Amino acid sequence: MKKSAVLLCGMILFMSNAFAGGILTNTNQSAQFARMLSRNASIDLDAVYFNPAGLTQLNNGFYFGLHNQSITQTKTITSEFPLMYDKYVGDVKAPVFPTAFAVYKLDNWAFSAGFGPNGGGGSAKYDKGLPSFEKQIARIVPALAGLSALGYPVADYGVDISFEGTSVFWGIQLGATYKINDVLSVYGGARYLPSVNTYNGTIANIQIGPVGALQNATTYVTGAATAATTKAQATAAGAASLQPLVAGGAGAMTIAQVQGAGLISVAQRAQIEGGLQQLGLTAAQIGGISIAAAQSTYSTASATLAATASALTAKIPGFADKSLDTKQTGTGITPIIGFDIHLDKLNIGLKYEHQTTLVLTNATKVDGTGLFPDGGQSNSDIPAIIAGGADYQVSDKLKVSGSFDLYLDKNVNWGKNVYLQERTIDKNYLELAFGLEYKLTDKFAVSAGYLNSNTGVSEQYQSDFSYSNDSYTTGLGFQWNMNKRLVLDAGMMLTTYKDETKSFTEPAPFGTY
């Protein structure tokens, strides 16, 4: 098939699965996280995000941290749809994924600020498009299979698809921590989320026809509609030409009988029989058909062909080039509370992020898809999160850590997927993490971690545009205290996803994400 398709997508529906966190939330907010994976009881600077109630354990003073991650991922969709590619591979890239933290600690108080992409923040490239896009074009072939009778066979198609999008939900967090006593500290704050999605794309140059001889779909279908109209007119004329015979009482006679009676000429008989043959009647059927039945056959065929011409004409606008140029914007606020419990060698952090109400409004210049009406609004609420962790200092050199994140996805209305199915949630998304840090020297430590993610989405939730799979992640790295004022953290992590299969009633049994 001639399919030249490029799809560039940086939408949150793609990017949410590329990073650590739930369906929508990015929790990979520091280099320490990448090297250890369990940070929910942190009392370092990245506690601004992971355990803000633990910041009072810092010494008095001002702290500032700047982090960047470079993220890549391969996403593969295997499709069983007929006539289409069987595999669609997407390359996800986020070369710049910045976060920043600042803290001012004074006695029992700590005032903190954080910044980072709380959702989205990258791009994805699918060189062959996506099944859900291409399926709309692939359906043309079986839908137009009957055009062979008009001299316009349809056995293949071609299309140029381009789609480009960006998405980022920036998180700007402010809060204050208060140390109640040597054991307990509390935090209150909020995260402001200015959010922007942009979508630009085209579906162009749709072609159909015989294999190896594709033509512009609009031209091709227009030709087929014209052929159907011409044939409808011819069959109507054929029916009209038989009316004098029927009116004269010869309706029950066969074609041979009326010619033998001298009511029609040999040429007229050949014309009537030739027309019936073109309508698909066999020689035996033509030999036995009455004049009245022949007239009825012509009339029925004329009506059918006229309806076909009308239906084809109605399809023609669907083959026109389509484009999309829209921008979605909105803001949300996430209230956050936290608690930190410090018991000698054990530190426990707890955090609750409230559900975020987020409404995105379309500013649409062009929308050939009908999906983004100008001024239209859509909900993109971010689920509440219950997070907790514990760090235990086994010795002066070794620290062990455990963390969990529970995303309350069942409380959010996720709407419908691209297949117009309700995106339902079977259970809340749960992450469990374990990490180790070992000090080789007073200035240098190494670490490693493991994180297991269990999504709770139903099969109905999954689609090409947004799917969530179970996964496990391993991480490792180091921390180097270069001097009293400067610390370097470096880490890397690898995430492996479990394949998920979605069944379809048509036009094929399944697709695998």
What does this molecule look like?
There is one protein chain. With 513 residues, the protein is an alpha+beta fold. Helices cover 21% and strands 44% of the residues. It is built from 10 helices and 20 strands. The chain has helices at residues 12-15, 31-36, 47-50, 131-138, 140-143, 217-247, 255-260, 266-278, 283-288, 291-315; strands spanning 2-9, 61-79, 87-106, 109-120, 123-126, 156-179, 184-209, 215-216, 322-343, 346-353, 359-367, 377-379, 385-393, 398-407, 429-439, 444-454, 471-481, 487-497, 501-503, 510-512. Strands 1-5-3-4-6 form a 5-stranded mixed barrel. Strand 17 (471-481) and strand 18 form a beta hairpin. Helix 6 packs antiparallel against helix 10 (291-315). The protein is rod-shaped.
Which helices and strands occur, and which strands form pairs?
Blueprint: E1 2-9, H1 12-15, H2 31-36, H3 47-50, E2 61-79, E3 87-106, E4 109-120, E5 123-126, H4 131-138, H5 140-143, E6 156-179, E7 184-209, E8 215-216, H6 217-247, H7 255-260, H8 266-278, H9 283-288, H10 291-315, E9 322-343, E10 346-353, E11 359-367, E12 377-379, E13 385-393, E14 398-407, E15 429-439, E16 444-454, E17 471-481, E18 487-497, E19 501-503, E20 510-512
Parallel strand pairs: 1-6
Antiparallel strand pairs: 1-5, 2-3, 2-20, 3-4, 3-5, 4-6, 6-7, 7-8, 7-9, 9-10, 9-11, 10-13, 11-12, 13-14, 14-15, 15-16, 16-17, 17-18, 19-20
